[in-house]
Amino acid sequence: MPQMMSDRLQTHQEATGDADGTVLGKLYSYTDTNSPINTDGFYNVSFHQLKRHNVLTRFRRIRPGMMMQEETMSINYAEHLSKAISFPTVYQDNLDAAHKAAFVDFRNYLATAFPRLHSTLKQEVIENYSLLYTWKGSNPKLKPILLIAHMDVVPVEQGTEAKWKYPAFGENIDSGYIWGRGSMDDKVSMMGVMEAVESLLASGYQPQRDIYLAFGHDEEVHGNGAAGISAELEKRGLYFDYILDEGGGIADGLIPQVDKPVAFVGIAEKGYLTLQLDANVIGGHSSAPANEGAVGVLARAIYRLQDHPFHSRLTTPVRQMFHELSRNMPGVQGFVAKHTSLFAGLIKNELADNAYTSSLIQTTIAPTIVSGGVQDNVMPTTAKVVINFRLLHGETSQSVINHVKRAIHDKRVTVTAMDDVWEPSKVTSIKSRSYRVLRKTIQQLYPNTTVAPDLNVSLSDSRHYASLTDNILRFVPLQMHTGDIERIHGTNERIAVSTYKSTIKFYYAFIVNSDSQL
Ligand SMILES: [Zn+2]
Q1: Is 350 a catalytic residue?
Q2: 218-239 pLDDT, tens per residue?
Q3: Which residues lie near ion ligand 1 (Cβ < 5 Å)?
């Protein structure tokens, strides 16, 4: 900062109460003042001149509540996402050379697409492919925030390739859509965040708090990338004010009783447990079976378990969701939704009717793999089934195991927990600053939208960061209409260019709003 410039701006700061140096940086970058440059290389320019040249309004200091100025956004934002999709970043164990190259090429591409970001933020590669970026804030006393997304995508199901309108890993923008795998899950978030940061840097923005960006490379399989990043952050003693991850979206026309779009913010995530049940009996010849056999014992165990489902309950996130939705529900429905305690039975009956909504009120039981027997005329001595449970808050992995053993009530069946056990997550308070910042940002970008808390029934990378914050928010501003949900992990995944543009603006505003005193 040239001295004279600095002095003059200092005066201006005092006069206007501008507390940080953002405006200084922006003015300094302004060179079209027609003013002579001193021998020292300083601009000899007064504030009156700057005002006359409209500099002060053009380079306004970015404050909470301000929206992205479109001229700071790359004109190639859609092409950037389309190019990102063309790298087949499908993660599997024992990655082959082509897929290793996809991750490395993608990383190299990011540096060319986002030059400001890469020259300002620190980049670290973790677990070979995951990426961690650090953007230093101006006020080290404030707690940092963390934005996470994942760069890996699920493969295309074999046999469905021909049903894709455009190749899943091609660069195709057509009919107002960006097509391909990852356009909704989750390259849209990763690229959207980076595009927003690039634009903020172009505006001369300097965040107050440190902002971390973490992009895992294997969310769809293990989440080892996220676990590695989290361990690294923990080692540095970091504790985040809040974390934003993928999760809920904006449901438009999907909630029959609510005539406005609803932005669902995941404030909690169900737990995860997989049990293996082994039936062990004496075998024999199938011509004279001595007992019902391992298959029969196992079948009975599965039947008894499914005949003893977990009790349904309305947990805090779901009650809070209903309370929010009730504001936009007419008449009796609104009254019922608002009074969840009074009408718990009625609400639970409604929700139990549908597979998705019933998963919001129950620990679910899903037998997924079954095996046993080797030959048609040999009674097997063993048979096994793998059952996946998603744990509602209030349940623990141990209470589920106890329930399973009681329900089966058969000594011939052993119950073993498999690795990868996740207890239900903490619940983020809707009174927290984090929730208020997110709600405000959503309302700012999508004015006619109701914001409601939600319970996420599937796992996200955010679980690996649970020890690093009290507040995890799970939300991507994707507007979902009928038929869109099937495209995620399905065929013809795509995003409207206009939706992607507002996604970038959303992340921009979310970062700027993180400076607010809400
Ligand atoms: Zn995802």
Answers
A1: no
A2: 999 989 999 999 999 999 999 9
A3: 185-186, 246
